[in-house]
Amino acid sequence: MTAPTDALQRGHTDQTELAAVVSTSRTTTSQATRRLKRHTHQTYHILRSIDEDAKFVVHVADQLKLPIVANLRCGRWYSPPDLTHDTCYLKSTDGHYGKWDLPMRRLNLHLLKVLDEHQGVIIIDSTRRGKRFPDALTRTVPLWCAAMNALLDLPLGLCTLPSQVSASESAAMAAHLSSAILPRLRAAQIKLPARPAKSLRPLWISPSSTSLDRPDPAELDFIPVYCVCVSRVVEESDGYRGDNYVYIQGAADDEENWAQGLTPDLFWSHRAAFLASADSCDAQLASLSTLPTPRAVRDTGHASHLPGTPLWIGTRGAARRPWTDFTHVINCTNAEYAYDLAPRPEQYLYLNVHEGKKGQDQLLAAFPVVEAWFAKNVLGKQEEAKVLVHCNQGMDRSVTVALLLLVRYYRALVVPGDRVESRDVSKDDMRAALLFVTEHHPRARG
What we know:
Protein-Tyrosine Phosphatase, Chain A, Rit1_DUSP-like, 15 helices, Prot-tyrosine_phosphatase-like, 5-stranded parallel beta sheet, single chain, Rit1, tRNA adenosine(64)-2'-O-ribosylphosphate transferase activity
């Protein structure tokens, strides 16, 4: 028993001594709470929680028989690669109260083709403790569905979940959609990659849902967009489960704070080793740089040409050697190729840019390097050049680099009537370039 506790039990009433007791008690409790939080948020516990929630993804996919689309960034962790049809990027911040928006760089137009082909889709995401659904699923997806319906001249307006979005907020969202978002989208004259014949309507599923029966698509007067939050809601009192780990709701959120360089592809490719034990997980994290490139990344290739330019935007898989399809490659990832023969510098530029928030400053710093390399090695031979600009999924870093090259060297294509080379790039120029890119590469999100 500590001396301060002895003092209390002896009935001492000295104010200084009592203050010391209270201070010591508070400090000890605070330290214990911090230690417990660090322990329960260790990467091993996070990955075990992700794996448990992923079982619900498998169950939903089996019941609904529709393609799985993982919402970046959190949702991608929960979606096993063999079940993942595609990804999307519908941010929760675009659904926050009073800030409702559908930015041009996150229009997710590629989903229209998926919905048209399969007559439905399952969007996977999660959220932290205290909420049943993330704002991305309860607000941003409904805004997106309503906006696409309007652009497609389909009748259904904004549909929200009453238990999560109040009637007054839903009315405010609908008003903002009509007065601000739709006029901007219509003015941009967006070219849609597909035109579903039925209205798009969001439906919501979580582990507490009682039924997962899939209705016959022919009997529906709409195309369902299933918004699936995979994590169960936990209370503060929840503790260790039976197999020696702490379950964490929405464990994959804010990956930059816990992943230590681990990616969803690496996790799923080496899942057994990461989940074997806490020590095994730590060992795998310590040796990330030596883990083989996941098959899903290595073998999947996709690239889209930007007409009128030598530029192609693609996935890492599109950069497989030998480069018979491309004369030049710009690698916008933080992983070099495992080739014995190093590519010639005039053919190849490696930017070493990390994925997510960590890579934003790296990408910005790389812009002068990209421009100088492109001007030296490509501009003089544009007729025969085929330049692949790629990141892992062909959705973000590669798109940003392609946008830079478009507005620097091919402005006439993306800024109507502009024939003058200029170093000044406006937001309108970037919006026009992004619309040009999404027309030919719908998965782009910039």
